[in-house]
Amino acid sequence: MNYKTYLFDFDYTLADSSRGIVKCFRIVLTRHQYLTVTDEAIKRTIGKTLEESFSILTGVTDPAQLEAFRQEYRKEADVHMNVNTRLFPDTLSTLKELKQRGARIGIISTKYRFRILSFLEEYLPKDFLDIIVGGEDVKAAKPSPEGVQFALEHLGSTPQETLYIGDSTVDAETARNAGVDFAGVLNGMTTAEELRAYPHRMIMENLGDLVHPSSI
Fold it and tell me: What pTM was estimated for this model as a whole?
């Protein structure tokens, strides 16, 4: 993989935060008597905005109510999210190998930037990442290309030299909309078949395949 810039999704790509996500959703949903939503259904919404996820899980479409759900979730996430998040085994070694090769590295996520930063400070040196674009940094969430385009402008990178890595069809759509190549990783709930429906350079069992390819 001969790219100069590697942009990553966060949830289910670099880290497994599903336990924290499910816990926060479960607290808010139970509080409002949505008692039949399964963990599997919650996990399938990871990567979408909180408003989109709550709408899918509850059927609610009123923007004010969805915003209220989001605010409740955020308060729970301040308590439960980072302590229930774990990096995937190949994450640190892959990022460090790419950095040693001189690549620029960034994260584009619907997750809040401050939460990603507070989690990663335990694992990576300060300023190791060249950019993090969180949900609070864009007007339109993925699959809008806004976050990727912002990162490219900030880094002085071109779409042709950039690879976007993610686990979901939302990530694949984001890469396509931004005009950058896409690599899928099977860390999440999305299957290889679902990812193959979109333009891609490779579908990986894990992130280590970026530096030691064995695509499937």
Answer: 0.93
